[in-house]
């Protein structure tokens, strides 16, 4: 056992000798002499460094330099610090220290505070520092930066080779005077190992609590990553990086894997990353940010996910392939972001079935009353013309099916380009109202007011579905298939001007079109029975008219719709005419001419004995409001009956009275005019 005793005595003597050597070393090494050099080094980089306390030694748990009362500020404004810290400990290597050379290995920041702000002009307080740094010529070294210290005996200087970084109880405050927003990152803890450029990957862990006036409650963040720094700080490899966020029921996760790298300090950064993100459930995140989104379905906004590969530079990023998922709808495609003189976005997405109605807010009682009242008016909404400029875009969006406003749209596709306020609708197509929609146009928001033009068509469309969506009315209804083509132009600064300045030409054609509640054949038979003094056939007249081979030319001027020409067939009747629809007053007025082709209006209709009533247009007027329209809205047109009466009476008078025509015409005219007006 004697050798054990001698060994212990030897170790004790060795420890005492080492302790004495370190004590002698520290006593002879005044580290405060480095304070001016540290401040000068910071000033050369455009940073005002202030050390309120002395630089001292920390012996436990590791040998370290300890700096207290640190402040960093822009060099022109040294009294407005951006960064404060109660203390910074810089761990040093023991062996270099025995040679009286300080080599920093670990940095610990205690309670650092960072204050960032943006003024009303959009200028950040950190820009004074970044501008000063960018003004210097960038120099990159293969080794971490050195601080040369004047030689004093055999002292060599202060070297930095950061292997570990720890931050305890940090805080970051951000304020934006333009939006009056403020965010605070508190309880910041960071632990990073092996941050030596060119070394092996190290582990980084961080946690913090984020609050702000735009958040209903704080968000807890956790970061875990394996990362490596390239030599010269010209690259960063993430292998991978995971960020977890939680706040009450809200939960999300972001995963990044890849690298950021540049060939030299003056070259652009090359980015190659794989990104995946998921928020489930999604609705609590909207509530957290103050977006109270009430939806018609409570089963939506459950899940959102994104996955893509990111490649490019800070000037141009490609996201290919790009996959998004919102609840049960999956979108696939690609995207490109450009950050040149004018920012730009190219986006191509193809999706499955989307029930948009589920995401729309339910109508409020006030909105339902407003929809039920035709007289209700709304204030015009100004167009955001300024916000519609200043960027470019190319959008190509398509879905298998879209359900919106109780309408099913099959295979909708939108192709739109934007060039600094000029919007070109290259293609809008969809299976709509049982037919096919194709449209194109342009919207110019570059001037003081917007100008727009649009052209297109609907083929094989169910006209009842069009009317229900655009001109809903329970009394006057149209049904059947039709083809519609249009061209339209408008201009204005707000929604009201766009409506008032609307000018459109519409062509409507249909082989079979039914209109309710009017029966034009009955109106024809009433004219004939009055003229021939025959009774109206005893039959049930349906409150509907079927029009064959309908052709109509329609002109839209603001709230007025003028039908310039109507051509159609009703059983054995040829219909011609024109008319007007007042959308604002919800009224219509049509002047029609009904010509009998043959001697009967239909198989069970009325018979016309007098050949002179055949093949000639008999006047009928359909005039009413949409709210009061009914079978009695179409009557013989007294405005145009005078000419027909005068012509017919002259014919009869000449046939019966010969030269005494003029006198008898006036007598018969008064009698028959009263008959027609009854």
From TrEMBL:
<feature type="domain" description="AsmA">
    <location>
        <begin position="271"/>
        <end position="529"/>
    </location>
</feature>
<dbReference type="InterPro" id="IPR052894">
    <property type="entry name" value="AsmA-related"/>
</dbReference>
<feature type="domain" description="AsmA">
    <location>
        <begin position="8"/>
        <end position="198"/>
    </location>
</feature>
<dbReference type="GO" id="GO:0005886">
    <property type="term" value="C:plasma membrane"/>
</dbReference>
<dbReference type="Pfam" id="PF05170">
    <property type="entry name" value="AsmA"/>
</dbReference>
<feature type="compositionally biased region" description="Low complexity">
    <location>
        <begin position="372"/>
        <end position="382"/>
    </location>
</feature>
<feature type="region of interest" description="Disordered">
    <location>
        <begin position="358"/>
        <end position="382"/>
    </location>
</feature>
<protein>
    <submittedName>
        <fullName>AsmA protein</fullName>
    </submittedName>
</protein>
<dbReference type="GO" id="GO:0090313">
    <property type="term" value="P:regulation of protein targeting to membrane"/>
</dbReference>
<dbReference type="InterPro" id="IPR007844">
    <property type="entry name" value="AsmA"/>
</dbReference>
């Amino acid at each position: 056992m004697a050798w054990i005793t001698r060994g212990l005595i030897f170790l004790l003597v060795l420890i005492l000798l080492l302790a004495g050597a370190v004590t002698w070393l520290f006593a002879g090494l005044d580290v405060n002499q480095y304070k001016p050099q540290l401040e000068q080094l910071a000033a050369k980089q455009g940073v005002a460094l202030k050390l309120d306390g002395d630089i001292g030694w920390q012996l436990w748990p590791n040998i370290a330099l300890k700096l207290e009362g640190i402040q960093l500020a822009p060099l022109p404004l040294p009294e407005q610090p951006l960064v404060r810290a109660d203390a910074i400990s810089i761990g040093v290597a023991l062996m270099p220290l025995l040679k009286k050379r300080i080599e920093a290995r670990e940095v610990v920041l205690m309670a650092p505070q960072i204050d960032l702000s943006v003024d009303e002009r959009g200028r950040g307080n950190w820009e004074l520092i970044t501008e000063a740094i960018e003004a210097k010529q960038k120099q990159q070294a293969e080794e971490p930066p050195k601080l040369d210290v004047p030689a004093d005996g055999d002292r060599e200087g202060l070297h930095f080779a950061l292997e570990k970084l720890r931050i305890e109880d940090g805080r970051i405050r951000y304020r934006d005077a333009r939006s009056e927003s403020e965010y605070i990152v508190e309880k910041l803890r960071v632990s990073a190992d092996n941050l030596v450029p060119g070394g092996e990957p190290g582990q980084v862990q961080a946690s913090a609590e984020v609050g702000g006036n735009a958040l209903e409650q704080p968000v807890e963040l956790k970061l875990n990553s394996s990362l490596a720094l390239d030599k010269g700080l010209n690259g960063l490899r993430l292998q991978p990086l995971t960020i977890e966020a939680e706040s009450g029921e809200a939960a999300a996760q972001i995963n990044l894997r890849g690298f950021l790298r540049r060939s030299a300090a003056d070259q652009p950064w090359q980015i190659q990353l794989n990104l995946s993100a998921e928020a489930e459930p999604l609705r609590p995140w909207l509530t957290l940010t103050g977006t109270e989104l009430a939806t018609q379905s409570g089963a939506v906004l459950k899940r959102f996910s994104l996955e893509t590969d990111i490649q490019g530079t800070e000037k141009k990023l490609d996201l290919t392939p790009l996959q998004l998922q919102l609840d049960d709808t999956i979108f696939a495609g690609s995207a490109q972001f450009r950050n040149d003189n004018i920012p730009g976005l190219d986006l191509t997405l193809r999706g499955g079935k989307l029930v948009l109605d589920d995401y729309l807010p339910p109508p409020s009682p006030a909105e339902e009353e407003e929809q039920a009242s035709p007289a209700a008016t709304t204030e015009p909404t100004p167009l955001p013309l300024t916000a519609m400029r200043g960027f470019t875009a190319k959008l190509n969006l398509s879905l298998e099916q879209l359900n919106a406003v109780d309408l099913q749209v099959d295979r909708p596709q939108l192709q739109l380009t934007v060039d600094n306020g000029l919007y070109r609708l290259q293609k809008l197509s969809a299976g709509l109202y049982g037919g096919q929609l194709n449209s194109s146009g342009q919207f110019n928001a570059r001037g003081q007011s917007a100008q727009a033009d649009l052209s297109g068509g609907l083929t094989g469309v169910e006209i009842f579905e069009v009317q229900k969506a655009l001109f809903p009315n329970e009394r006057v209804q149209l049904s059947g298939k039709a083809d519609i083509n249009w061209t339209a132009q408008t201009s204005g600064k707000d929604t009201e001007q766009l409506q008032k300045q609307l000018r459109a030409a519409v062509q409507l054609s249909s082989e079979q079109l039914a209109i309710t509640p009017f029966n034009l054949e009955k109106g024809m038979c009433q004219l004939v029975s009055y003229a021939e003094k025959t009774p109206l056939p005893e039959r049930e007249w349906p409150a509907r008219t079927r029009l064959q081979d309908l052709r109509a030319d329609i002109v839209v001027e603001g709230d007025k719709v003028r039908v310039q020409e109507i051509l159609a067939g009703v059983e054995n009747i040829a219909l011609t005419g024109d008319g007007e629809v007042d959308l604002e007053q919800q009224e219509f007025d049509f002047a029609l001419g009904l010509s009998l082709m043959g001697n009967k209006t239909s198989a069970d209709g009325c018979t016309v004995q007098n050949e002179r009533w055949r093949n000639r247009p008999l006047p009928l007027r359909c005039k009413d409001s949409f709210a009061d329209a009914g079978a009695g809205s179409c009557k013989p047109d007294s405005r145009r009956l005078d000419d027909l009466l005068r012509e017919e009476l002259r014919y009869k008078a000449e046939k019966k009275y010969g030269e005494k025509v003029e006198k008898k015409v006036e007598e018969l005219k008064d009698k028959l005019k009263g008959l027609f007006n009854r």
